[in-house]
């Protein structure tokens, strides 16, 4: 092989090879606005997942700023190959190979919801396929799940608040969200509890902290150890009671 051919081959190889996480720049920690898990109050990032991350950071001496951005942006940033830790995404088969997973942090229960006033009753996923449209946030795990299940009546929206607004206005019959997030979502919209009710259970999933798939285990170990220590010394249980009332 001539030197020019060798140089071209080397250039192509290095341009397509994935860069180690450390070579992508400093770590970024991203979470999306989802009360009571991750949100900004009085200029301070807080919520169950945020406080878990901050306590781990305190224990391992990490000072990475925590950023609150729309979920679609956070997910796309992580998928674009940046050195990103996502706070509390759901672990699903479709995402398994996309990240390194630290956790679990929490378990959530996902339902199809409708306005109580409509009297909607569903028994199976096939019943849900017949609805005139199902609202759910774009790029959420629930969207991936239902899309893979063959649903063709999904209507993705930008945020959970938009989804609720459209449901309340009668734009669509149903929406998808977690039972853990619904009370705060209704409170933010000043909607009385019980206005929106579950009509079909969809799944239970676990949330984790995620890192790029090629992150060395040595970089993950302090995060894993700190989370395990929190679970052992009662800190994790205290935060769970405080934020999730469990």
Automatic annotation (TrEMBL):
Residues 33-244 form the Solute-binding protein family 3/N-terminal domain. Pfam families: SBP_bac_3. Keywords: Signal. Residues 1-23 form the signal peptide. It comes from the Bacteria. PANTHER family: PERIPLASMIC SUBSTRATE BINDING PROTEIN FAMILY 3, SOLUTE-BINDING PROTEIN FAMILY 3_N-TERMINAL DOMAIN-CONTAINING PROTEIN. This is Transporter substrate-binding domain-containing protein. It comes from Duganella radicis.
């Amino acid at each position: 092989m001539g030197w020019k051919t060798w140089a071209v081959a080397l250039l192509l190889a290095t341009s397509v090879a994935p860069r180690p996480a450390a070579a992508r720049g400093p770590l970024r920690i991203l979470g999306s606005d989802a009360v009571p898990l991750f949100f900004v109050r009085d200029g301070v990032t807080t919520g169950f997942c945020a406080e878990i991350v901050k306590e781990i950071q305190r224990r391992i001496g990490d000072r990475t700023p925590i950023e609150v951005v729309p979920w679609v942006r956070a997910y796309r940033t992580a998928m674009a190959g940046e050195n990103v830790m996502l706070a509390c995404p759901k672990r699903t088969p479709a995402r398994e190979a996309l990240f390194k997973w630290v956790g679990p942090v929490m378990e959530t229960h996902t339902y199809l919801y409708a306005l109580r006033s409509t009297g909607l009753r569903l028994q199976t996923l096939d019943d849900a396929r017949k609805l005139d449209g199902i609202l759910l946030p774009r790029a959420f795990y629930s969207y991936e799940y239902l899309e893979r299940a063959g649903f063709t009546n999904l209507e993705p929206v930008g945020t959970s608040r938009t989804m609720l607004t459209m449901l309340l206005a009668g734009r669509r019959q149903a929406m998808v969200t977690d039972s853990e997030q619904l009370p705060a979502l209704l409170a933010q919209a000043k909607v009385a509890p019980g206005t929106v009710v579950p009509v079909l259970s969809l799944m239970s999933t676990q949330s984790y902290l995620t890192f790029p798939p090629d992150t060395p285990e040595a970089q993950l170990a302090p995060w894993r150890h700190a989370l395990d220590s929190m679970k052992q010394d009662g800190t994790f249980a205290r935060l769970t009671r405080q934020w999730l009332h469990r």
